Amino acid sequence: MIQRVSEASVTVQGKVVSEINSGLLILLGIEEDDEIVDAEWLTGKIANMRIFEDEEGRMNHSLLASAGDALVVSQFTLHASTKKGNRPSFIRAANPGHSEPLYEKFCEFLSVHLAKSVAQGRFGAMMDVALINDGPVTIVIDSKSRE
After folding, report:
1. CA-to-CA distance for 18 and 25, rounded, in angstroms?
2. Is residue 147 included in any domain, yes or no?
3. Structural domain tally of the chain?
4. Which residues lie closer than 8 Å to 117 by C-beta, 6 or more apart?
5. What is the pLDDT along the chain (147 residues), one digit of tens a residue?
6. Count of Cβ atoms closer than 10 Å to residue 75 Cβ
7. What single DSSP character describes residue 105?
8. Within a domain: 120
9. Distance between CA 3 and CA 107 in Å, rounded?
10. Residue 51: which domain range?
C-alpha cells in the first residue's frame, strides 16, 4: 500500500529512525510466495505511478519525476485474514527468513529507480509511524494481480 504524504516518520523506542518530506510512505507486506521478480515489478510501478500533481492540479507526475522521497515500512499485518472469528490470521504473511531479504531487495531496487537513498523503518521492530496523508491519496498495489 502506498500513501502520498507531505511528511512521514518512523519512531522506535522513542527515537526517530527515519523521516521524509513530500513523497510516498510505502507499507510493504510480503507473502510467502513473493519473489524477487515481484519486488522488481513493484518498485518500477511505484517509482513511475503518476499520482503527484502537476501545475494544473492533475495527477500527472510520478515519484521519480517529482523528486519526492520514499519511506518503506515492512508490515506483515497487511496480509491479515479476517475470514473466521475475530482474531486475524497472518498465515499468508511470509516468515522473517523469507521476508527480510526481500524487503531489503525491494528497498535496494527502489533506490536504484529513484537514483537516491530510500528511508526505511526497522524490520521486525514495534514502530510508531506518523504521517500526513496528502490528498488523501492511498493506493493498494498487489504484485500478483498486476493491475
Report:
1. 11
2. no
3. 1
4. 111
5. 999 999 999 999 999 999 999 999 999 999 999 999 999 999 999 999 999 999 999 999 999 999 999 999 999 888 788 888 898 888 888 899 999 999 999 999 999 999 999 999 999 999 999 999 999 999 999 887 876
6. 17
7. H
8. yes
9. 16
10. 2-139
